[in-house]
Amino acid sequence: MGQISAALAAGNPVLAKPAEQTPLIAAQAVRILHEAGVPIGVVQLLPGAGETVGAALVADERVSGVMFTGSTEVARLIARTLATRLDGYGKPMPLIAETGGQNAMIVDSSALAEQVVADVLVSAFDSAGQRCSALRVLCVQEEVAERILTMLKGAMQELRIGNPAYLATDVGPVIDTAAKATLENHIETMRAKGHKVFQPRLLDASATRGFANGTFVLPTLIEIEAINELKHEVFGPVLHIIRYRRPALESLLKAINRTGYGLTLGLHTRIDETITYVSEAPRNGSLVETATTRAAVARLTAYRDWLTTQNDTLTALRCERYLKHIIVGSTFILPGPTGEENTYSLKCRGTIRCEAATLSGARAQLAAALATGNHALFASGSAHHPADPSHNPPEMAWVQTLPAILEHHVSVERSREDPFDAVLFEGERALLQPLVKRIAARPGPLIGIQSVATGALASNEDDYILEQLLSESSVSLNTAAAGGNASLLMIT
C-alpha cells in the first residue's frame, strides 16, 4: 500500500502485483481503494507468480518504473531486465527496491538484561519473524552473554505457538510450505556444521494450538562465530547469536556493514558515547569524515571561488544555486510519544562515480557531489567507455589544480574495480545504455544512475536530483528505559 500510495501521489497509474502467496489481502486492499474513489483504471490488480506475471510486467515497455519489495536476488534480476531499455526521456528506468536486511542488534555489558530479552522476543519472533525489519543477528558482549541467553531461552520456553487468531498466541505460522522447508533446511544445516541450536520444548496442547496442522517453525536460536557465515537473509523465527568482546566492537560494526544489508540496526546500551559511536559508524566499514552542512558549504564555496578564477561562470552559478539548498548533515527532530526521541538525518551517500562527455559536464558533476557531501570519483581513459574506444572523456588534469580543501573529496579512478555508491552520467543515449547494463551486472548493492544528455547541464535544460545522492537515517531512542545512564557511574 505504501508503494501504491506513493505512485498515486506522484500522478501515476498503478499495476499492483502482490506476492503470489498473498492475493486475497491484496484484492481486498485494492477493492478498498476503488471504494474510496480511486478509479478502477488507475489501480489495477494483477495477481500471479513472479516468474510469469511479475517477469512479464517488468519486461513490458509500457511499464515506466518498478517498485519492489522482496529478496536481493530478485531485485538484481529486475534491475538487469530494466537495464535493457531506457525510459521515454532517455534516462535509466526507475527502480525502487526494498530488499530486507540482515538486521543486527548490539548489546553491551551496560544493558539491562530484562529489557534486552523483551525487545528480542518482539523483534525476532512476532509475526514469526516475517518482517523486513525483524531481528536476525543478536550480538552480545561476552561478559554478559551467558546470563542474557539463559534468560532469553527461558522466555522462549513460555512462547505460545499456534493460530494467531487467538490472542494468547505469540508465534504464528510462516507463510507457506516452501518457506517452512527453507527455514528447517537452514536450521539443520547449521546444526550439522556444529553450531549450537536451541528450540523451546512443546509443552502442551494449549501452548501449541494447531501446531501439527500448519506451516509452523519453532522459534530458534543458533550460535555463530561471525556474521559473514550468513550468506542471505533467513526470513522467519530464527535468531543468530554472536558473542563479542568490547575491544572488538569496531570490527563487529565493520563486519555488519560489509554484509551489504543496511535496513535496521539495534543497540542496547546505557552509555551515551556508545550510542554516538554506533549510530555514526559508516556503513561501508571504512573510517571517513562524517559530512556536515557546514563542511559541505565550505568545500562548495571554495570550489565556486576556484571556478570564478577559471572564468567558468556557468558552473560557479550552479554552485551558488546549490549553496542555497544544502541539507547534507541536517538532523530533524520528529514528533513521537513520550519516552521516545526520534530523529531523521540526511547523510552523504559515499562515493559518486562521475562519467562526463564534456569538461563543463564533469565540473557540474563535481558540484553535485560536493553539495551532497560526497566524494567524486571520475572515470578516466579507456575505462570511461570501453565499448566505444573512439569516445574520449575530457582531460582530468584540472582536478590536480583544485583547492587543497577538496583534496580528499575528488579523485580519478585507478581501475574499474574502484568502489562507488551512485553514478552521474553526461553523454549520448547510445553510450548510456551499455553503462546501465554494466552497473546492473555488478555484484553487491544496487547502484542508482542519474543521466543527462551532452550539453544539457550547460544550457540548464536538465539537472541531477541531489536528494538521490543522499542517504536517509532515522534513529529512535528510548529515553524512558529503566536503569538510568551508565555514564554517570563511569565518572568515578
UniProtKB/TrEMBL annotation:
PROSITE patterns: ALDEHYDE_DEHYDR_CYS. The keyword NAD applies. Its EC number is 1.2.1.88. Residues 2-287 form the Aldehyde dehydrogenase domain. Keywords: NAD, Oxidoreductase. It holds the Pfam family Aldedh. It catalyses: L-glutamate 5-semialdehyde + NAD(+) + H2O = L-glutamate + NADH + 2 H(+). It is an enzyme of class 1 (oxidoreductase). The lineage of its organism: Eukaryota, Fungi, Fungi incertae sedis, Mucoromycota, Mortierellomycotina. The keyword Transcription regulation does not apply. Gene3D superfamilies: Aldehyde Dehydrogenase, Chain A, domain 1, Aldehyde Dehydrogenase, Chain A, domain 2. This is L-glutamate gamma-semialdehyde dehydrogenase. PANTHER family: DELTA-1-PYRROLINE-5-CARBOXYLATE DEHYDROGENASE 1, ISOFORM A-RELATED, DELTA-1-PYRROLINE-5-CARBOXYLATE DEHYDROGENASE 2, ISOFORM A-RELATED. It comes from Linnemannia gamsii. Pathway: Amino-acid degradation; L-proline degradation into L-glutamate; L-glutamate from L-proline: step 2/2.
